Amino acid sequence: MINMTTQNDSKLHLKFAIVKEARNSARKIASEMQNFIDQHTTVSVERTVCRLMGIDGINDFEVPLPNVVVENIKQGNGLGTGAAYFIGNAMLETKLSPQEIAEKVSQKEIDLTKLPPHDTFEIRLAIQDVVKHNLELIKENRSKRNQMLEKYGDKSGPFIYVIVATGNIYEDITQAQAAAKQGADVIAVIRTTGQSLLDYVPYGATTEGFGGTYATQENFRIMRKALDETGEELGRYIRLTNYCSGLCMPEIAAMGAFERLDMMLNDALYGILFRDINMKRTMIDQYFSRMINAYAGVIINTGEDNYLTTSDAFEEAHTVLTSQFINEQFAKLAGLQENQMGLGHAFEMNPNIKNGFLYELAQAQMAREIFPNAPLKYMPPTKFMTGNIFKGHIQDTLFNAITIMTNQKICLLGMLTEAIHTPFMQDRALAIENAKYIFNNMADLGSEISFKEGGIMEQRVKKVLSEANALIKEIELQGLFEALSQGKFAGVKRPIDGGKGLDGVALREKEYFNPFMEQMARELNIGGEN
């Protein structure tokens, strides 16, 4: 990565004093929110604790056992005490494993909240071996990824990132392996429409989805195995991406950690704005999900590009930068390193704007200079794709040009048929061919050029940065919850106590503990063990 940190290094002559101001304001916004997060838990956080303790499977009604366990605890008014306490207490009382306890709860042979209580210190001792063993599994996956990258070497320049979205995991494999052989570096398995609103994670391999494939641990395992086989054949490591957003954000992060996913779509604000998930629920869930991703060595991808599909990309560019600053600080609080922060932005201006390419180039360069160590996730044009495949291919080519000129790392390829249908394999092949051609022929262009002092690009980023700084200071004064309720991002207003999932939030009781959060915090060297 390039490392621009001073105004003298900036091609755009950015005012880094303003960048510092904005970053400090974002840090205060995130820190204030962290005080709220540290006092609460959610059903999804506690289901994640169950999964990390090895509880898996479904009951006779196909309800996941982590849901069964947490629902039992919630009905007994124990959610604020936490799943670790009740499972550990049951282990002491019954001498059973967490999985066996979950099965007994499902069969209504055990009510976790009515067992005789044991001493909290003894409960912690009872579960420590399970905690250590399962965290070791995640660390082994991280080590295996590093070993494979060392064996094959990693790619310099942009990752070619493409999607598969058939709805059938086995058909996804065919498409994913073909894409890898065509040159893709990252395969994203798109989730079925609406999964982010499910308050449970489906179980097993799935063959029916709409607009994508269900995110399940078995589907993760199947795809990981297939990409490893193809990677061995090609002599390179193929990264796998999925989505840990929505009502099951930390659960899916844990499943991905167990199955060695490499990237996760994981935004602090996306679910609030675009899926109407309650903001309190989302803030609590994103922290644990990001901590798990940090521990597993996963790169998160944030969703700022979505703002520009609902708002004007020219007028609202400052909201993207504001969100990037805030996402960066939430990520740091959860232990993510800068090289794990795939902060999102997009090439989404109306192609009829005069000098639109200059504005897009300016904003991409600005993101690279402000976040020099982040593997930025750059999204292709979608909003103004029309079905004219020839014009669409040109739009994607301009996007690819900016990707390489500004050293974006995660390049989600545009498809010439974006406005027509889910891409066919031949559409994807053309997109990969286009990107490889541009990345090779323009490989060092970015380092060979400079930008006119006082010119269109410099004036553009000066305006965007100034507006972002003003907005972030406004959010700092009123608080993030209030800002979201007023529609500061994408013009979407969400009530503080509205949206889906609020009933799954609980205040932590004094007995509460989350051993995974505690151990991860220690190893990641972040403040606040809970």
From TrEMBL:
Lineage: Archaea, Promethearchaeati, Promethearchaeota, Promethearchaeia, Promethearchaeales
Transmembrane spans: none
Record protein name field: D-Lysine 5,6-aminomutase alpha subunit domain-containing protein
Superkingdom per UniProt: Archaea
The D-Lysine 5,6-aminomutase alpha subunit domain, residue ranges: 12-518
Cleaved signal peptide residues: none
Species in which this protein is naturally found: Candidatus Lokiarchaeum ossiferum
